[in-house]
Design a protein that fits this description.
By secondary structure, this protein is an all-alpha fold. The protein is about 80% helix and about 0% strand. It contains 4 helices and no strands.
Length: about 70
């Protein structure tokens, strides 16, 4: 996942407002248990594409991440 995240980071340097890339990077951060990074990517993806077909799935994962990050703070 680390290498994939690095690739997405480079894509986002060139095109910072790509919701699908943010969504995917958030998924990878989640798999690595980087809860805050995962949550931030998911929130930004939803803000950029609130009407995307997969937004309900993204919101579901976001709710889980909000609970996980609430326990960290």
């Amino acid at each position: 996942f680390g290498q994939a995240i690095a690739c997405i980071d480079r894509i986002l340097i060139l095109q910072p407002d790509q919701p699908t890339e943010l969504r995917d990077r958030g998924l990878m951060h989640r798999e690595l248990e980087c809860w805050t990074s995962a949550r931030e990517d998911r929130e930004r993806a939803i803000a950029l594409a609130p009407h995307a077909p997969e937004v309900s799935e993204v919101r579901g994962v976001l709710e889980e991440l909000q609970v996980r990050t609430a326990h960290i703070h």
